[in-house]
Structure formats: C-alpha cells, structure tokens
Design a protein that fits this description.
By secondary structure, the protein is mainly alpha-helical. 62% of the residues lie in helices and 0% in strands.
Length: 223
C-alpha cells in the first residue's frame, strides 16, 4: 500500500489533491499557506483536511518503520515464517502489528516460561483442548523432582494457558471492543488530599464552553 492509498482509505479526497498536498508539505510550506494560496494545487482543501493528510501521512511512515523493526527482530530469532511475514506486511494497523509481535518480544522470564522448563506445556495443551475430564490424574503424571505436587503441575499449566490467551490476537481485539463499549471510568478524592485548604481547580468543558472562573484559572479564553 502506498502513502496516498493509505490516506484515501481514511479520507474522501482525490489522489491528485493528496499528491499535490504532500509535495507542498515536503517543500516546507505551512498548512495555512497551502490552504490560502495553493487552492489550485489542492483542489480547494481547507486547513483541517490538509492537517489530516499531514497527520495520516506521518502515521503511515511510523507504521512502515515499525514493520521493518518487527520483521528484523523476529527474523533474528529465526522465528519468521512465510505466513507471519505475510500477515505483518499486509497489516497497516499499529495495534495489530504489536499484537502479532507480542509473542516474540524480549521480556523478563515469566511464570509460564518457568512452567515450560519443567515440562508442563503438554499438560497445558491437554487441558486447553478440554477433551479430558480427569485433570487430577493427568496432573499426577507430571509430578517429579521439579514438580512437587499435582497442584503445582496444574498451576504451571494455568500459567502457560494464561500466557497463550494473553498473546492471542483475536482475544485481545475482542477485549478491546468490550472495554470500548462497556468500560466505565470512575474517580474519587484521595484521603490525603481532602484536608487541603485550597483544592486544585481542573477545567471542565460543558457544551464546549468554560466558565469565567475556569478561564481565570487556566488562562484560556475561547475565541
């Protein structure tokens, strides 16, 4: 995908207008200047549209750089399959790219890593498949010098499964959607701050306007 195609996917603007606008921006023309004096080049785009083009163009550059970095890192680990390479190259979403890279990110040793070293990954796979009801009997087969009990074996398997679920891109996407639709943010006064004689004032916007008191505190006055 090219820069222009990426921008067109998000904005309903002609290819010619985008190309000319990008060229003017590359020549260090300011957005107000382009909007006012280069209407013939941009197709009468306003400042907001030009700013959007500049912003999305920068996002595209960041995505390309991140892709290159991710591909290089996975390749150095000898873990880059042709399928994974294709998925990374086809993606133009930063969050999706980070999800694809997550299993290969360098990190501190986790409890799941420790459990795998104890040979508990096969147990985790069996439990994850949900095809065996006698979990206790299964776990007993993994008790040895490194795994002291059935419960320890099961906990190790849980740690491994938790990591698999955390690294699953489909699960992460769905959790984000749920949080975006249903998450509720709450706040409360910290007890240590209740005794303050002069509490801090934070600006609040009601119907796009601020009160005169808020303008006094923030030094901001709307046009």
């Amino acid at each position: 995908m090219t820069t222009v195609a990426f921008i067109q996917k998000q904005l309903n603007i002609s290819e010619k207008s985008i190309n000319n606008t990008l060229q003017l921006l590359a020549e260090d023309c300011t957005i107000p200047f382009i909007a006012r004096y280069r209407k013939d080049k941009t197709g009468n785009l306003d400042e907001t549209q030009i700013e959007q083009i500049a912003k999305i163009s920068k996002q595209f550059e960041e995505i390309i750089k991140r892709k290159e970095s991710i591909l290089k890192s996975i390749e150095e680990q000898d873990a880059l399959t042709s399928e994974l390479r294709q998925r990374i190259e086809d993606s133009f979403d930063l969050q999706e790219l980070e999800d694809l890279y997550l299993p290969f990110k360098k990190r501190k040793k986790t409890r799941a890593d420790a459990a795998k070293e104890k040979g508990l990954e096969p147990l985790a796979k069996i439990i994850m498949s949900q095809k065996n009801n006698d979990i206790a009997l299964l776990a007993s087969k993994y008790v040895n010098n490194e795994v002291g009990s059935e419960e320890e074996a099961l906990q190790g398997a849980r740690d491994i499964m938790a990591e698999w679920i955390n690294e699953n891109m489909y699960v992460r996407k769905n959790l984000r959607r749920i949080f975006q639709r249903k998450a509720v943010i709450t706040s409360k006064v910290v007890k240590a701050k209740k005794m303050r004689k002069k509490p801090r004032n934070f600006p609040s916007i009601l119907n796009g306007k601020r009160t005169s008191t808020e303008r006094l505190h923030t030094g901001f006055s709307p046009c």
